[in-house]
């Protein structure tokens, strides 16, 4: 059984020796409770050493995974599952942020930056999220028949659950929306609505 938790990535790490935000406190409590209730063999997450490095550059401070800290404190194995830069190159993964500027330069329709950003990230969702989510599942190949907690971005929950179901793996969303704010909801609402309205993006 896969137990899924949806969160904003900002709750998954923090600068070392800093205090948790309120959202991070809620995330720790949720994860501790989930581990106590489900007794997983592994706590895995959509996170990577690349993500920690990126956070360190943004905050000018070394970051640590809150997920790993909680798992370690409860003697449960932890695993990063998001592709590192070399993995992204190998599977041909492109982020919405990478697509945005070329789209701005090529725009001839007078679209706003928000409209172009929506299209760029909708393209990532439609074309590249399946590659990323398959990568996560591949990283869990040795525990597909075990009890596992998996944390990912909240917007991934439904599509990842569908992928898991396609492999005949039972799953349950046990918590979601942790640390997600109104801005996140508005952004991903626009992006996912665009994906639904434009099935051609998946080609």
Could you walk me through the main structural features you see in this protein, from its secondary elements to its overall organization?
With 203 residues, the protein is α/β, with parallel strands linked by helices. Helices cover 53% and strands 17% of the residues. It contains eight helices and seven strands. It has helices spanning 22-38, 49-59, 66-73, 85-91, 96-106, 113-139, 157-166, 182-197, and strands spanning 2-7, 13-15, 42-45, 63-65, 77-80, 148-153, 171-178. The chain has a five-stranded parallel β-sheet, with helices on both faces. A two-stranded antiparallel sheet has the order 2-4. It is globular. The model has no long low-confidence stretch (mean pLDDT 94).
Strand order of the largest sheet: 5-3-6-1-7
Report the portion of residues in β strands. 15-25%
Number of strands: 7
Gyration radius, in Å: 17 Å
The main sheet comes to: 5 strands, parallel
Q: Uncertain regions: pLDDT < 50 for 5+ in a row?
A: none
User: Helical proportion?
Assistant: 40-55%
Distance between the termini: 32 Å
The SS-based structural class is: alpha/beta
Number of helices: 8
Order of helices and strands: EEHEHEHEHHHEHEH
Give average pLDDT, whole number: 94
Globally, the shape reads globular
